[in-house]
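Hi again,

Forgot to attach this to my earlier email, sorry! This is the prediction with S-adenosylmethionine bound. I've pasted everything inline since the attachment limit keeps bouncing my files.
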Amino acid sequence: MGRLLKEVLKDKLTASELKSLYAGFDIIGDIAVLKIPEPLMLKRHLIAESLLKAVKSVKTVLQQTTPVEGEYRLRGLEVLAGEPKFETIHKEHGCLYKVDLRTAYFTPRLSAERLRVANQVREGEVVINMFAGVGPYSILIAKKVREVRVYSIDNNPEAYRYMQENIKLNKVEGKVIPILGDAAKVIRNTLQQVADRVIMPLPEKALSYLSDAYSALKGGKGIIHYYEHIFYEVSEDPLLKAIEHISNKALFRFNVDYAGVVRDVGPRLAQVVLDLKVD
Ligand SMILES: C[S@@+](CC[C@H](N)C(=O)[O-])C[C@H]1O[C@@H](n2cnc3c(N)ncnc32)[C@H](O)[C@@H]1O
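Structure tokens for the complex follow:
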């Protein structure tokens, strides 16, 4: 995508302007979302129109006007060019995800991580996705594994509505069970000791929900995919920091099967994943 932007805007922007733009550029379905850095604000319509003209698959260019924020992880968006719309269908690993980007969270930047997790799920497993959004982890798992049950929880009614629609769109009814509600409450009330695997893709809250994730594991054994945002100094390793952090807080014993930086989410701020093997 960096090459694409470079090609489209090479005569209109300097190399450093292009670089700053690339960091905040996503294509979701037929919508391009741009974060416009302050020095490029006056050129934003030119940038958006050029992109629209050059990339046939893009029908709408949106500007992200706020960071992803709040309980539902939403961002402010404004139309810069093209069709004035916020809803699209994104294709990822052969699955289709319909989403309104104003009302529900979706990022294509977790595509490789979703596949990494889905590839670990074995036949016959019960999985809980505590923070499922419009369903991308859950649906990919259901598509890849013949016999699986994925309890897929989100507390945003709009994300839940799209998740229901996406389950039908991808024909995984009965394998992905959509649940609207707070993940901790749902687990405490209905999903104690049922899961082989729990996914926690909400780095801002994962730590405070960790004991609930543990309580959902069958016989206190299984895998927890734990995500966290870690600030780190140049001299520090964000993975070691995350492991230390969780070791100080977790009230159960675990081994770290895998630790990885999923992506950078800010200067010296990494999204980290730890696969915790609990037994
Ligand atoms: C970062 S998004 C991840 C969505 C999805 N897993 C994905 O990969 O696109 C986190 C989701 O958690 C939901 N959420 C926030 N707090 C929650 C809670 N207490 N219980 C259930 N879902 C929650 C938000 O509405 C949001 O859709």
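The chain has two domains: 2-85, 104-278. Residues 38 and 132 are 33 Å apart (CA to CA).

That should be everything now.

G.
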